[in-house]
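> example.struct
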């Protein structure tokens, strides 16, 4: 499996206890949507390798994971710093104006007043606000993802319709 068919979950930050458990820091809010979890894909030497879960417990934004066949502190310490992924197919389908970040890359962003702004380059995730990034006329435009701004996500047309706050788009295009 390749990374483009997966989503980033987090990173193994340390060992936990003496029986081979690791602490996985969860950096992706979409992870909460997963209902059935049997394994993680760990990136080792630029390859995604499945590691099957024997036991997992959750605490806030981290989980303590015991993988099958890794029963020693030494084996677990080899995984510290490794990133964890899961296949996109494990995420439940979203509808309406609710979307996953990966899902809308390359959609056309259309403003009610300014018209087509360009293709969504990426969704930038900040702790307090996620932003849609588009490039128009060689200039970056960042649009907050908010219910008052996103008016419609049309998956068939691959378009996101917005009503940007007055002056926001002009602020990016003026200089």
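> example.seq
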């Amino acid at each position: 499996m390749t990374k483009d068919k997966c989503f980033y979950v987090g990173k193994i930050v340390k060992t936990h206890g003496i029986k081979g458990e690791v602490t996985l820091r969860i950096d992706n809010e979409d992870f909460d949507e997963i209902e059935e979890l049997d394994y993680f894909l760990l990136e080792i030497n630029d390859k995604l390798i499945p590691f099957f879960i024997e036991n997992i417990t959750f605490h806030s934004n981290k989980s303590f994971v015991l993988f099958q066949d890794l029963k020693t502190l030494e084996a677990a310490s080899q995984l510290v710093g490794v990133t964890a992924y899961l296949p996109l197919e494990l995420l439940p389908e979203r509808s309406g104006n609710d979307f996953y970040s990966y899902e809308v890359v390359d959609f056309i962003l259309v403003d009610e007043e300014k018209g087509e702004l360009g293709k969504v380059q990426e969704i930038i995730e900040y702790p307090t606000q996620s932003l849609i990034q588009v490039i128009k006329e060689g200039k970056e435009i960042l649009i907050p993802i908010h219910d008052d701004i996103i008016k419609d996500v049309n998956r068939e047309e691959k378009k996101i319709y917005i009503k940007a706050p007055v002056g926001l788009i002009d602020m990016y295009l003026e200089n």
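> remarks
Helices lie at 73-77, 168-173.
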